[in-house]
């Protein structure tokens, strides 16, 4: 394993019965780098994240983690019984073992110190996400895993949240692996984008991915035709289920192909 990597994935496939959800994926997560997983519903993003967390066993392939890797995980949603009175402070106490100073520091890192005594039930979408992020930070993670961190947050709050995630990466020098549906919002705060549709359709810096034909095919950016597309060799296309089909002919391949790394 390369010592610069915290996690190294090679040839990973995960199937549920006959359904291959992750198909021969290789990638690495590096210290200090933000990796964003992007892909349509059902593409396998959460499955891949669960495998990285060690919650799912690979059907094929290997996931290597650095020996003492500490992971902080922020779930997509947390359902808390509304009849159960719970302040942010108590909520954070239920997470990892942490001192009062640690809790204050974590809340400070997400700019939510003022919420300490507030009920979790009265938080806005954006505030709740910050508290969940603070909770993930209590473990002093080397790898922070975030499943759609901006879900339920209004558009201004989303931009703020992604900036916050980038500042947390700077402060903790941790790796970040996050799932997002919105590349243009995360662009400024991402080093590596992996466009997933069971296999890796394309990957690289966000600018590169956002102009990749396979990304445009999946997400249909308005006005994509006006973008200067960078071209590369396409060797397949997808049907509506994301399954791989051979290219029908050369002309059609420009708009239906999924190229990039395999
Ligand atoms: N434990 C499981 N057993 C059987 N099928 C599963 C299981 N977990 C996930 N799947 C299936 O795997 C596919 C990928 O699911 P996954 O949740 O990884 O997708 P996703 O990319 O995160 O989707 P979304 O964007 O909708 O959250 C789906 O078709 C799902 O039904």
From TrEMBL:
GO molecular function: ATP binding
Stored Pfam families: ABC_tran (PF00005)
Name used for this protein in its record: Zinc ABC transporter ATP-binding protein ZnuC
InterPro entries: AAA+_ATPase, ABC_transporter-like_ATP-bd, ABC_transporter-like_CS, Metal_Ion_Import_ABC, P-loop_NTPase
Span list, region Disordered: 239-262
Domain ABC transporter: 7-222
Keyword Cell membrane: yes
NCBIfam families the record matches: PRK09544.1
CDD domains associated with the record: ABC_Metallic_Cations (cd03235)
Keywords, sorted A to Z: ATP-binding, Cell membrane, Ion transport, Membrane, Nucleotide-binding, Translocase, Transport, Zinc, Zinc transport
SUPFAM superfamilies, per database record: P-loop containing nucleoside triphosphate hydrolases
Keyword Nucleotide-binding annotated: yes
